[in-house]
Amino acid sequence: MSTQLKCQLIDEATFNLLISDPDLGELTVSLCCLPNAKRVTVTIVKANSLKPMDITGKSDPYVKVILLINGKNIRKKKTSVLCNTLNPIYNESLEFDLSDEDRENTDLIFKVIDYDRVGSNELIGCIGIGVHFDGINRDHWYQMIEHPRVPITQSYNLRETIPIITCKNSKTTQQTK
Ligand SMILES: [Ca+2]
């Protein structure tokens, strides 16, 4: 009985750790939809209070953006590396060609990564925006579609991981197998 209770307490503590991400910093991005050109402009505005990854107490951050359609990696683009800073200001626009149809099935993954000259680059934190996410991460995408040619800006707390994207069609596929 007491062992069982103890286990439950541990589980709860682990659960709390999982839902409260450590302070990795904040990323500000702007989305703008140009329906006539069938294009979406993703502007990486800035990041704030990033987690230091280097021995200097700073990081050398860049942002990689991955475009997914129906959960499949379609394209990726990245910003330049800004050295020795925890508060990089990019104001860099990344263009993605996107048809009206694909726009309804799109997600964007943003990864803030510390560049290292020696060894492999390390992930600082990430976020996801698009139709398969919840809350503001989803609403931001639809606000962009509803207001074409207007840049919509939003700041996000970075997370250690992003939830797995489950596609609307994937369940049907599993059932038919
Ligand atoms: Ca570094």
UniProtKB/TrEMBL annotation:
One GO molecular-function entry: calcium ion binding
Name of the molecule in the record: C2 domain-containing protein
Record domain C2: where: 23-146
GO cellular component annotations of the record: exocytic vesicle; plasma membrane
Any Gene Ontology biological process: calcium-ion regulated exocytosis
InterPro entries per UniProt: C2_dom (IPR000008), C2_domain_sf (IPR035892)
Matching PROSITE patterns: C2
Family annotation (PANTHER family): C2 DOMAIN-CONTAINING PROTEIN, SYNAPTOTAGMIN
Domain of life according to the entry: Eukaryota
